[in-house]
Design brief:
Layout: E1 9-13, H1 16-33, E2 38-41, H2 48-61, E3 69-72, E4 74-76, H3 87-94, E5 106-107, H4 116-129, E6 135-138, E7 160-163, H5 166-171, E8 184-187, H6 190-194, E9 199-203, H7 209-217, E10 235-240, H8 245-251
Parallel strand pairs: 1-10, 2-3, 2-6, 3-5, 6-9, 9-10
Antiparallel strand pairs: 4-8, 7-8
């Protein structure tokens, strides 16, 4: 599949493991080029393999994270940092606690902030004062969401409190062991994501194929938030064969 068929770069690899390795290579290359890079990072099942490979690179190849600055894309509203389903806990369990990050350079939205709107503004200012995001890594939801920017999110939006769709809450229910998934979250907004100097979107599995096809081949519309990336000057969709399967049908 040629990337010239799209307005963004598209790379299709064999499977989830290959996708994870390729994504880790992109992150590692940026850190080696610019050890003080600012990274905006995702959670969920898709990037787990990428984080494992980055940890391996740190341990076996000397990849350092010590001078980099990290922002997380989102956090559930109402969850304390130590909650097992919080994204703060996820990141320390899967990356930050396993490599040489400077804790003072790690930023995750505070889900228990007394004034969530003030927390959103504080977080947005923090990204801006860091010099902006050098590399943003994204997953994609089955409805085309990125971060927790659900369909209908304004392309002009900044970090804010959002209502989570029923489909997103169902997809994330496993993290809560059958308990209730929070209905609201703090998420970095669409405009803030788009202003990243480089974006890599990861997708694996047939359940993401429809969303990937709409994001890449459909119109640029707020009803498919990831479609915004068609207009980004330096975006890469890194897909396994299953996630790319609807693209092949559409361009056959």
């Amino acid at each position: 599949m040629s990337s010239t068929e799209y307005r963004v770069r598209v790379e299709v690899v064999e499977d989830r493991a290959a996708m994870s390795r390729a994504a880790a290579r992109v992150v590692a290359a940026r850190l080696r080029e610019n050890p003080g890079a600012v990274l905006l990072l995702p959670t969920g099942s898709t990037p787990i393999g990428m984080y494992r490979e980055l940890v391996r690179m740190h341990r076996e190849e000397g990849l350092s994270f010590a001078r980099a600055t990290f922002f997380n894309l989102d956090e559930y509203l109402g969850l304390p940092a130590g909650h097992p389903a919080s994204y703060h806990e996820y990141m320390w369990r899967n990356l930050y606690g396993l490599v040489d990050v400077d804790p003072g350079r790690v930023h995750v939205p505070d889900g228990t902030a007394g004034d969530p709107e003030d927390e959103c503004e504080r977080y947005e200012v923090g990204i801006r004062e860091s010099g902006g995001v050098d590399l943003c890594v994204l997953g994609i939801g089955r409805n085309g969401h990125i971060g927790f920017n659900e369909p209908g999110s304004s392309f002009a939006s900044r970090t804010r409190v959002v209502e989570l769709s029923r489909s997103t809450r169902r997809a994330n229910a496993g993290d809560f062991g059958g308990g209730a998934v929070p209905k609201r979250a703090i998420t970095v907004g669409m405009r803030t994501i788009f202003e990243s100097r480089e974006i890599v979107l990861l997708a694996s599995g047939k359940n993401k194929a429809g969303a990937v096809a709409e994001a890449l081949k459909g119109p640029v519309t707020e009803e498919v938030p990831a479609s915004m990336l068609q207009e980004h000057p330096r975006a890469l969709f890194l897909l396994d064969h299953e996630a790319a399967s609807s693209l092949r049908r559409r361009v056959a």
